[in-house]
What we know:
Distance between the termini: 29 Å
Shape: globular
Number of strands: 6
Structural class: alpha+beta
CATH class of the largest domain: Mainly Beta
CATH topology of the largest domain: Archaeosine Trna-guanine Transglycosylase, Chain: A, domain 4
Helix content: 25-40%
Order of helices and strands: EEHEEEEHHHHH
CATH architecture of the largest domain: Roll
Strand content: 25-35%
Radius of gyration: 17 Å
CATH superfamily of the largest domain: LON domain-like
Largest sheet: 5 strands, mixed, barrel
Amino acid sequence: MRISIFPLPGMILFPGLQLPLHIFEPRYRALVKDALARDRRIGMIQPQRAEEGAPLYQVGCLGKIEEVEALDDGRFNLILQGEARFRMVRELDSATPFRQIEAELLEDEDYPALSPVERASFEREARRFADAQGYAVDWEAVTRLDDESLIDGTSQIVPFDIASKQALLEASSLSGRCELLVQLMQFFGRRDSDDPTVTLQ
């Protein structure tokens, strides 16, 4: 399938989750207008480097525009709802100002729940990481989240580098993503908070 993409470093989307976006560049305003005129779908995918025209990673997520606010100056505020991960087959030559790819959707099976040990290990490390970074977290609300919302939601918002975020997106199981997330929080949590490589978003 052909997908019009928004290549944004450090920003990933998971199926079932939402991503707020503020669209201001002319080419991405054109992307939004095109999506609204067709099926309201946009592909979120990371470039391998934070530079113009950088090659893309292979896996991204298709999202549907659920809410849109058109501002007077032509900008947009969007809520994108994740629908399915995809794997890029190739980038297409296109006359549009935004990039387009040919991709195939990935069949994500229902993930088995985390074991109590896995869940407890994650929540323990998440508390340490949040404390080290100075984040304010409603831990009571966190304990009420189902495993998938917790792990995927955390993966989506953590301030890790591009490659780490991509590894989380590409993890083939919820348990594997949880284990990787714990390892990354331990690694980044030990780094000096003034080190710019810790938070690249």
